[in-house]
Amino acid sequence: MTNVLWLQASGCGGCTMSLLCAESPDLIETLEDAGIRLLWHPALSVETGAEARALLEDVAAGRVLLDILCVEGAIARGPAGTGRFQMLSVTGESVMAWVARLAPVAGHVVAVGSCAAYGGVTAAGGNPTDAVGLQYDGAHPGGLLAEGWRSRAGRPVINVAGCPTHPGWVLETLMLLASGEAVALDGMGRPRFFADHLVHHGCPKNEFYEYKASARELSEIGCMMENLGCIGTQAVGDCNIRPWNGEGSCTRGGYPCINCTAPRFEDPAHAFVETPKIAGIPVGLPTDMPKAWFMALASLSKAATPERIGRNARADRVVVPPTLRRPK
Fold first, then answer.
1. Would you say the pTM of this structure is higher than 0.90?
2. Rounded to an integer, what distance in angstroms lies between the CA atom of residue 96 and that of residue 129?
3. Are the C-beta atoms of 107 and 126 separated by less than 8 Å?
4. CA gap 79, 96 in Å, rounded
5. What is the pLDDT of residues 64-119, one digit of tens each?
6. Considering the domain 2-193, what is its CATH architecture?
7. Cβ contact 22:30 at 8 Å
8. In this structure, are residues 318 and 227 in contact, taking their beta carbons and an 8 Å threshold?
9. How many CB atoms lie within 10 A of CB 199?
10. Segments making up each domain of the chain, as ranges
11. Binning pLDDT at 50, 70 and 90, where does residue 139 land?
12. What is the CATH architecture assignment of 197-318?
């Protein structure tokens, strides 16, 4: 069996809610089939109070083997580096202190969600709680744990980023670790099995993107990159390749991608549904696309936009169907 201990630090608990929505298979079935035992989860386990504290003490002392430590939520280091803005009930110690005690004895440490990975929404604005990620402070290496810190298995923190993160990403990470497989990471510590993709891949609005047929209001079905702040062409994630519960994603629901798998996504310096521009050109261009090429292709695409695509982009549903082609 692979023992997993889950702590919830400073956050909303949304990543646990997302994980509970896993389907085909569901959370419990997946863990059982993979031989994963959830030692304790503050929201899902029956042990509380003295029982929970005894278990944590046994794990910290090495009396219970800890294969994977999952941490959800950012680490609140305040006030003045004490971590006492967030205490773990009954234990008399802060969550920060418990993570610092448990991480060294864990075979692997997994940051579940962008708050645990980089600070996320918990660190937004003035960051009054001095919140950081496990091994990153925003985009900078070194959060609660030093840049060179490594787990008992010799690996850095695995950042399963997202706000909330995809249940499939969490389960696939846990299953890979339980099977003894190495989880390849990108330059920000995210598993490459989802970080090698862009949210743009598989987006249902790609036909509108190709012709730069843009929506101007959230109720319209055109591409949201030009006017509504969508940065799915820059954001890593296979959200539109394996949608939530086989069906949903932000762009499928008509909302722009805000790049929630990236550090500092929570402070974009503009409204999430606005596209910053200079001389009418979006500041954030698609990944790997030189500006001159984008301008040339965008101009050609707009000039070649079929009437069907142009009209549909500004509507809240398909108003012009594709032309029927009868076989000869």
1. yes
2. 12
3. no
4. 12
5. 999 999 999 999 999 999 999 999 988 999 999 999 999 999 999 999 999 999 99
6. 3-Layer(aba) Sandwich (3.40)
7. yes
8. no
9. 27
10. 2-193, 197-318
11. very high
12. Irregular (4.10)
